[in-house]
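Why does residue order matter? Because the sequence determines the fold. Keep that principle in mind as you read this record.
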Amino acid sequence: MTAFLTTISNFYSYQKERFPVIVLGLSFLPAILSSGAVVIGSVNLEFLTLSLIISLTYLLHVRIIDEFRDYEHDLEHHKDRPLSVGAITLHDLRIIDWMAIIVLVLSALYSSLQALLIVVVMLGYSFLARNEFFLGRKFRKHFYLYNAVNLVQMLLLQVLVYTLASDTFAFTTVVFIHFLFTATGTIIFEFLRKVKSPGNDGTGQDTYTWFLGLTNALLVYAVFAIVNILFFVKIIFLMPNVPAYLLPTSVVLVIGTFGTILLNKFRKEEKTNQWMQLSFMVMYGGFNILIFLTV
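Structure:
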């Protein structure tokens, strides 16, 4: 019992840096609301609760897989991370991972057989990702492909959320455009997570700014942001009734996002980089809430 409490205590310290539960839950919430809205036109408490639990437990599972896969790399190149400094152990993470998997499977089983089958596929894919698709360390050298293949896990999660809304959902035009909207949002979140200000790239050669430089990385981000905005606009055009507040609200969100890109371009500080990441989270979350309110 004491060992288990120690594991929970270690995880609490770990999650503050590597898996901030509250922040992640709040970031998932808008996309879950819009997902339910485009599939069934409304959102109930059961769907919302199940989607949050499943999203968080699966993302935790993916995070822990990353910790195991990157352990040796992080010991050398990210010596300040909780696992590297001994704030938590691999044994602790293995216990937490099994707890997350159990909650994930039981939640899916409670929802529907279709949801359970998708979870089985997701866990199978994560097993392949954990073992680097049995291609060995050389696969890691293909930085862009490596990250793209691992990103598929989050796209599967989005399909699962649709299934939680309705186990008979179909990829109608609005649902398909919404999927592309959330897919580009997911790509941007993953991209920004690996965009660092000059001098903060570290030595691991595992950031987009290491390969692209800050200016090119900001350009890539801007292009993806524009694509994400266009998908949002397309979804709104498919709605029969658009509230008057949608246009001015959207314009403010877009100006804020691109304003922080320009600010980060000229200031090149870690603080402005964080503002840029936060501004996209606000814009993307705002877009999702506007979709939810418009449907």
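The CA atoms of residues 75 and 84 lie 5 Å apart.
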